[in-house]
Write a structure and sequence with these properties.
Blueprint lengths: L1 H6 L2 E2 H8 L3 H13 L4 E3 L2 E3 L9 H4 L4 H14 L5 E4 L3 H9 L6 E5 L2 H7 L5 E5 L3 E3 L4 E3 L1 H7 L4 E6 L3 E3 L3 E4 L5 H9 L1 E7 L11 E4 L6 E4 L5 H9 L3 E4 L9
Parallel strand pairs: 4-5, 4-9, 5-6, 9-12, 12-14, 14-15
Antiparallel strand pairs: 1-3, 2-3, 7-8, 10-11, 11-13
Helix pairs in contact: 2-3, 5-6, 6-7
Length: 250
């Protein structure tokens, strides 16, 4: 814990070398610390004492990777041929882009550089990347140009991510700059679909951007508490539980 507090992210091999124990021992203790909610495990390492947005994107995308991949697969199953969809920037929504197979002729609008790269070679997917100011922490483009461009589109579905979901307040985000694009995309969509692994629930971060009443569907993983699941359904929101994709984590 002291090492992680001082250095931030550390890989399993780095911790094993520092503490002179095996990688297996480190993984076992990291799993125990994560269960006590003292650290966040990632693919091949861990970090502590930092907000997720402050951690490098390459590290954030490995957190709860199996759950996020399952959520991405489930989200892709909702998209019908001929639809126009918006895909938000974020590590969970990016895995929806990677799950998109070249079997449906669809249009994807995004402000995520990661999503655009994932779809650039899909013959049946028309991918439209919005313009704007590049935001390094989220690998996206933001600002007035992106917001104005979204106004030109209508979406069958907007797939949005969130830093946290509070059952009484709604969806919130760690960075204020992302909020106008998220709100505009939601307003232009027939259906708003939120992609969030179960660790995002019952939490709150600084900037609220959408009320739960504005959400049509939430896709998450089996780790969601039953009381929270019941609360979502009671609000008339469709809840889909995605099976995690196993075998990717170190």
């Amino acid at each position: 814990m002291d090492i992680l507090a001082r250095r931030g992210y550390q890989s399993v091999s780095e911790l094993a070398a520092d503490l002179q124990v095996s990688d297996m021992t480190i993984r076992r203790y990291l799993d125990q610390l994560e269960k006590r909610e003292l650290i966040k495990r990632t693919h091949g390492g861990a970090f502590a004492g930092q907000e997720m947005i402050e951690v490098d994107y390459r590290i954030r995308e490995t957190v709860h990777r199996e759950a996020k991949e399952g959520i991405g697969e489930k989200a892709f199953s909702l998209i019908q041929p001929g639809e126009s969809v918006f895909i938000d920037a974020g590590t969970t929504t990016a895995l929806l882009a990677y799950a998109i197979r070249d079997t449906k002729r669809i249009t994807v609008v995004t402000h995520s550089l990661v999503v655009a790269r994932a779809l650039e070679n899909r013959a049946n997917v028309q991918c439209i990347l919005l313009g704007g100011t590049v935001h390094g922490a989220t690998h996206s483009v933001l600002g007035p140009l992106a917001e104005e461009a979204i106004s030109q589109f209508r979406f069958n579905r907007a797939f949005l991510g969130a830093s946290a979901i509070d059952m009484s307040e709604g969806l919130s985000q760690s960075t204020f700059e992302e909020i106008p694009v998220k709100r505009k995309a939601a307003s232009q969509a027939q259906q708003v679909v939120v992609l969030a692994d179960s660790s995002k629930f019952d939490r709150h971060v600084t900037f609220l951007f959408l009320k739960l009443e504005e959400v049509d569907t939430i896709i998450t993983d089996p780790g969601l508490k039953e009381t929270l699941a019941d609360g979502i359904r009671e609000r008339g929101i469709e809840l889909a539980i995605a099976t995690p994709v196993e075998g990717r984590r170190s």
